Amino acid sequence: MKRFVLATLMSLVISDSASAQTLRFGFNEDVDILDPTLSRGYTTRMIFSALCDKLIDISPDLKFVPQLATSWSWSDDNLSLTLKLRPNVVFHDGEPFNAEAVKFSIERHQSMAGSQRKAELGPLKSVDVIDDQTVRLNLSAPFAPLVGYLSDRAGMMVSPKAARELGDKFTTAPVCAGPFKFKERVAQDRIVVDKFDKYWGKESINFDQVIFRTLPDATVRLANLRSGQLDLTERIAPIDVAGVKSDNRFVVEESTELGWNGIIYNVGAGEKAKGPMGTDPRIREAFELSIDRDGLVQAMSKGQYTPGNQWISPSNAYYVKEIPVPKRDIAKAKALLAAAGQPHPVITLVTPTQSETMQFAQIIQAMTREAGFDMKIQATEFATALDITQKGDFEMFTYFWSGRTDPDGNIYNFTACGAPLNIGKYCNPEADVALKAARQSADPDNRRKSWAQAAAIILKDRPMLFAFHRKYFWGRRAELKNFVAYPDGLVRFANLKLN
Description:
Blueprint: H1 2-13, E1 22-27, H2 42-51, E2 56-58, E3 64-66, E4 69-74, E5 80-85, H3 99-111, E6 124-131, E7 134-139, H4 146-150, H5 160-166, E8 180-186, E9 190-195, E10 209-214, H6 218-226, E11 232-233, H7 238-245, E12 250-256, E13 260-265, H8 276-279, H9 281-289, H10 293-301, E14 306-307, H11 330-339, E15 346-352, H12 355-369, E16 374-380, H13 382-390, E17 396-401, H14 408-415, H15 429-440, H16 444-461, E18 464-469, E19 471-477, E20 480-481, E21 497-498
Parallel strand pairs: 1-10, 1-11, 15-16, 15-17
Antiparallel strand pairs: 2-3, 4-5, 5-7, 6-7, 8-9, 9-10, 11-19, 12-19, 13-17, 13-18, 14-18, 20-21
Helix pairs in contact: 9-11, 14-15, 15-16
């Protein structure tokens, strides 16, 4: 209740700026780092969808479509990708977008300390400027997922001038080439962006301003939508979907996510890896066997989510059917704990404070208790939780991954030795061989075989637990038109308008 009052008071403070030209958008968590090279957070990608155009975008049916690049083509040996760039584009600081800017942004992704994009660019060895509107990416080995990664943060371009001048302060005033330019950020409260009047597609942008409101509690977000303080909100709780649909003032949009949701174990990152979960895969197996995924999904979503045990959902063409979702087996879980000499392990799960992640943690806590686990929940604000896990200061971490168009983006960076999202420091050279083989082939059958080999290794080692796959539920005012729910969970602002 206190949080609701605070949110309502804040909305009154900003209401003078809210008009038909302002989109008020409520989202689930605070952003992490406003720099596409360094960012890890899902919600941050929503901010970037307003600020930072990409070289390539996707359509609602997951086809690749032009954005800052108007076309692209592979060489015959699949070792270079040539992109033709959109002419007459400028960054928010007025600097031109051209091949030199692409070269700068890509090389920044590769070389910047703390980059989360380096592994996404795989075997990229150089970037050639062919002419002002043509750039060529050269690889040391074939890399099938590259176009997919260029349709996400690895393809986001930043102003070379701003990046050089601001250095590590770039995140306080990011400068890209998207439809909106950065105005202000109030941590854990709001981010405001203004329409960029020199945007190449400005005719399709109907809002002068977007106010992104941080409201981690799904009940509070929905209350703000219903009271008229928001025009759009993400991640409506499944239990509330029917009620919103029954109110003709609002519309619910939905799409099935590309990613996975579950837990990452610390198996090699410092002292916290020396606990029971990090040292013995039998204990991790017992933990998984104590979970009823069907019951979990029913409790969290009234059965609207999909139980899973891999980095892609069972409906995906690359899902390994030979390794199906395991059934709950408390007796076997207890036997494994006894064999490991740990009949009652005391463990801690770091969990972001959003309502859905907390619900997940509490259900897992109750289910695993039946097998003998004493699981503590360390509830932590999202950005702080990311910092904690990056430092290895965790045993287990609740991780909800929004997913990528290419399945490589759902697994490689989490499990490959030394990869940036591999916060648990798992490393198995045999798994790396299989994952890299899937990266190097464009043939679907070859990739399927390689991922099956990787799954057999990774799901046996259990560096993480894949639990389920969500649906995204968006709530919008009925007057908000032309909203399209994309499977990557991001808003496209082109043609979006309030009648």
